[in-house]
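Tutorial handout. Part one gives the primary structure; part two gives the three-dimensional structure as tokens.
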Amino acid sequence: MSLSPPGDLLPAPEGDQTSLPSASWPLVIVALIGGLAISLVAGTHVALALVILPIVVAVAFVSPQSLILLLVIWLLELGLVRRLIPGGSLSGISGDPLLMIGPAVIFALFMRAVSAGAMRNRTGLASVVLGFNIIAILQAANPGQGSLMTGLGGLLFLLVPMLAFWVGRSLMTEQLFRQIRWTVAILGFLNACYGISQQFSGFQSWDARWVQTQGYTALNVGNGVVRAFGSSSSAQEYAVTLAIGIVAWISLISEVRPAIRIFMLAPVVPMVLALYWESQRSALLLAIFGLGLMIGTRFKMRARWVAVAGVLAVFMLVFGARAIGSGGPAQAGDAASTLSNHQIVGLADPTGSKSSYNSHMNRTVKGITQGFTNPLGSGTGSVTLAGSKYSTVSKGTEMDPGNMAIAFGLPGVILYALGLILASQKVYRRGIEGHHAAVFATGVLGAALFQWFNGDLYGVCTLIWLSLGYVDQLPEAAQPEPVELLAPVLPRLRGSITHLPA
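Part two.
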């Protein structure tokens, strides 16, 4: 099955990409050295790194667009690859050579992007991202995280995915980004089918071994039922990937011929069912929120009404869950009823005692407070898996606002607030100007809200920053007039009120 729509796989190269200016060769050397450093931190054998890295760097500088598309596919399917290849199921960030490939590719593409002028003519959003990059590097040496290895390991989770912003800003093309959206949509559909098979037909031997060796307590929802995780590395990554896959399918519907739009909805059904049965309430709520934002932007509503559309979509889901109610106690081992009841109970009372919402919010508020009480931060690795791997420090709150405050202190709080505002403004403005990529990015940012810096979500995090980088460099069109949601109705209401009898 092809992962891209009919037509050439990649856009025609602009200019001669087979030769490099002499000024680029120092960047090639830096990319090789940086990739070697990444492989050593990730625990990869030096001999393997010396074989893979020259190939990666060569492709990055000769055909970067091809490597970008392959990177997206690789990261989205990395979990399954790690389970299928012997030696790829070792826990932690060290000892698994497969974990080195993604960061090495991103770093090589980043150096190629720098040579293409990615950091020139920076916008406000680009300046904030650069600020994050700098502070992440500086905080890697923070002694509060336990060791330097913790900080270096933290860079793999926080800094490296963000570097994709510069890749999207200079190396992405409209045709390539559309192919990426098709890829995300199709892989999301295949992932949903695989996850449903796991849920109701049982785990394959490699999946069962992964559950046993990783010890994911979050997979167990009780009653003898274990959550699916598809081709992802974790249930959380699986849920967010499904949400973004749904967003991708819906965003593509308006770009195909009207005669086949109804058929475009067919793949969405198993994806929605898979996300529902995944029984992660936050992922489902954010998926609906992201779709509301994307649809509001697509119809060029004013910003306040776009936000209202997202919130109303969430409230409709909550009220619908309350109307349905629980189906009663499920029998042991009955996956469908157990997962359904778990989902509905949580959705009907998202802040109740059976929801993890309060726990997450309390941890996030404490994390943000720590940004003020410890304004210098605890270090880049303190909120990542590196904190538990290389030291006893692990302070993650599972949400971006708290993590940025803990890791980077007061500067992290300020930069995160600015980044959230500027990114939202950018995708909204380019979206109402008619850029399909920006409309899609609006849905992605909403569906992955508060997880933009979560490097554990390998493919999702990189896709977010690729999308933001591409949207950041889109040309500004003549600002269209946003549609006032009640504009067609208000004149009639005024006329009716004027003619009311005294």
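Part three, for discussion. Strands lie at 220-222, 225-226. Residues 1-19, 88-94, 486-490, 496-502 have pLDDT under 50 and may be disordered.
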